Amino acid sequence: MDLTTKLRSDATLESIKVAVKAAADGPMKDVLLYVDYVVVSSDVGSKETCIFDVKACTQPSPRFVKLFAWYDNELGYSSKLCDLISRTGGK
Predict the structure, then answer these.
(1) What pLDDT, on a 0 to 100 scale, did the predictor assign at position 70?
(2) What is the pairing mode between strands 50-53 and 32-35?
(3) To the nearest whole percent, how much of the chain has pLDDT over 70?
(4) For the chain, how many structural domains are there in total?
(5) Quick one: which of 13, 55, 57, 65 has its CA closest to 35?
(6) How far apart are CA 53 and CA 86, in angstroms?
(7) Beta-ladder partners of 63
(8) Which helix (H) or strand (E) holds 74?
(9) Are 68 and 1 in contact (CB under 8 A)?
(10) Percentage helix, strand, coil, to 5, in the chain?
(11) What is the pTM of this model?
């Protein structure tokens, strides 16, 4: 996934990374994985649905950022199906 966006106000890439890391460690735990090492699509093998690729993100200007994330359409997807079944199984 490549998210290229123009921001409403100035921000630093570092502040965006901090916010994504907080989400990955908090409310998005087990859905979003924050990685700060070089990854490629063949490295994907995570139970999380989305792997935020810190090393690939860039910021050409204070209001323009490109964020990158990988998704695992095998293990990640299967893991979320299992989560869904677990949550709905008793209902």
Answers:
(1) 85
(2) parallel
(3) 91
(4) 1
(5) 55
(6) 29
(7) none
(8) none
(9) yes
(10) 35, 25, 35
(11) 0.80
Identify the CATH number of the domain in which residue 32 sits.
Answer: 3.30.360.10
Q: Is 35 left (phi over 0), alpha (psi -120 to 50) or beta?
A: beta
Tokens representing 62 are 């204070």
pLDDT tens-digit map of 38-63:
876 555 567 888 889 999 999 999 99
Question: What is the token pair recorded at 72?
Answer: 């695992």
Separation between Cα atoms, residue 26 and residue 22, nearest integer Å: 6
Tokens of 8: 């409403």
**Cα 26 from Cα 23, distance rounded (Å):** 5
Range of the domain at 64: 2-88
Question: And the tokens for 83?
Answer: 């989560």
Rounded CA gap, 47 and 9, in Å? 34
